Every structure is written in C-alpha cells, then in structure tokens.
Amino acid sequence: MRFDDVSQAIGNTPLVGLPRLSPDGYRIYLKLEGHNPTGSVKDRVAKYLIEQAERAGELVPGQRVLEPTSGNTGIALAAVCKVKGYPLTCVMPENTSEERRQLLTMFGVELVFSPASEGSNGSVRLARELAAADPALFMPFQYGNPANALAHYETTAPEILADLPEVTAFVAGLGTGGTVTGVGRRLKRHDPDIKVFAAEPEYGDLVYGLRNLDEGYVPEVLDQSVLDSRIKVDSLKALQYTRELAEVEGIFAGVSTGASLAVAVRVCKRLPAGSTVVALSPDGGWKYLSTGAYAPGDVREIATRISGTLWA
C-alpha cells in the first residue's frame, strides 16, 4: 500500500483470532490497534481531532495545540501535528512510562506534568487551566470532542464489520469513552442485537489508563446508552491475561488489552454458544517495557511492584 504521508496510513488494522484463549464453543478476536503508525488506537482519534478542527476553522496554520494525555493520544497527536505543521504541548501525569516521555520529546513536544496522585483527571484539570489562561492555544480535548467517537464510528467499526459481519459482541476498555461509543453506535446500527461491553477498573484500582466512572469524572464523549454493561476488572487479572496472551497466542500487547480480554472471556458466559466476540487491543507492549510488567517472576509480585504506574 502506498500513502502520501503517515496520517494516511492510519487504520485497517488486523483482526486476529484467539483459538487457544477462547472458551469452548466461542470465538474471540482481537483488533490489534498497535499496528497503527505510532502504535496505538489513538492514531485514529488524533487524525480526526485535527482534521475536523481544520475543516471547522477552529485550528489555523501554525497554532499551538494543547492536550491532556497519559501518553498514547499525545504521541499520536505529535505525529499528526508534525506532518501538518502544528506545535504541540501535552499535559500528562508525572508517573507515565519513560518510553512515552522519550517518544514525545523525540517529536519535539513540550511536556507539562500534573501530579501523579491525581491520575489522568489531574491532567485534564491542569490543561483546562492552561487553555483558559491562553486563548491562543487550541485544545481538541479528546474527552469531550465528538470527533473522538466519530473516528471509531467511521473507521474502526466498519473495519470490524467488513472482516467479521457475524460479530455478536464488542468489548473495549473504558478510557475516554470514544471507542465504546463510536464502535458501539455503528455496530448496533448494523444489528441492534450486538452487545457492547466496557471493561472498567475496580473502584480505586489503577488498571492502566482505564477509568472507573464512580470516581468522579465522566467523559463528555461517552454515551452510556450504547453500553449493555460496564464490567469490572482488577489490575492483577488484566496483567495475567496480558502475559498469557503473549505466552499462549504470541501477541505482545499493552496491559489494558488484558483488561478487555478478561472481560471478553467473562461475557462469553452471557452469550449463546457459538457467539463471536471482538475485543479491542489499544496498543502493543513496547511502550511499557521499562515498567517491568513483562519481566519473569510471580505475576502477583509484579502487579504489586508496578501498581503506581500509569499505563494508557
């Protein structure tokens, strides 16, 4: 395939079956978003955030873009902004992985850090303060921008339906809410009986960039009416499934993928025999190696050791 620039290479990611991890009588497929140019599902979102703003006249040539992020959206925006000529400032928690900091610095992004104790909510708070203080900045704000969900409605979901029109259920981690909202709307338009499940952390548990809606902030882009259920998953289970995915299926994914896979396996019990479930893998594991999540050893000890790391 040939493209004029990297932004055109976004999407059309593989949908890969998991024959060894699928429960008997069911089929689970993983949508591998780590195959996007900067390695995550957020490439789709970044492209839509910037291009929709350009079309609406909200973003002018050379204007500085500001965005709160815990990593992947910032990296995706960095690539898109680089080819389009926009300087970028990212506000992110100070406990993000070293790989993400280095990638953003490589792209020439200005980094502003929020307190680790506030998680991604702290980055949202600080970014809003900076945007309010400087009207010259443009903040796409993935948490409240309809372009976030639209990216998945127009690209991710149609790809799933083209590859697997018989899909029975869809599972994705609950982060900004854009993925479950956009994909869910499009899948239910195709077939209202398709179930949509969100993998959500246990209250007070850091499951690698996912968010529990009961902890305060509900992203504006999230349409909860699309969800058939929010299903809790803890950080240990997410890590266990991430490591098992590599050991059994040969797929090296980020730890939020493990959360979605854990929920996908669980929801099979709610579905008729023969059902087909698609789980979304937001990214590969490359940006997390420094955290020790994939190191040899007891998974419980590793989960405890890395519990303060922010992942998505």
Task: Explain how this protein is built.
This protein has 312 residues and is α/β, with parallel strands linked by helices. It folds into 2 domains: 6-35 and 156-306, Rossmann fold; 42-133, Rossmann fold. Helix content is 38%, strand content 15%. It contains 9 helices and 9 strands. It has helices at residues 42-56, 72-84, 98-106, 119-133, 146-163, 178-190, 235-249, 255-267, 299-305; strands at 15-17, 27-32, 65-68, 88-93, 110-114, 169-173, 195-201, 229-233, 276-281. The strands form 2 sheets. The protein has a 6-stranded mixed β-sheet with strand order 1-2-9-6-7-8. It has a 3-stranded parallel β-sheet with strand order 3-4-5. Helix 6 (178-190) links the parallel strand 6 and strand 7 (195-201). Helix 7 (235-249) packs across helix 9 (299-305). The chain is globular. The two termini are 29 Å apart. The mean pLDDT is 91.
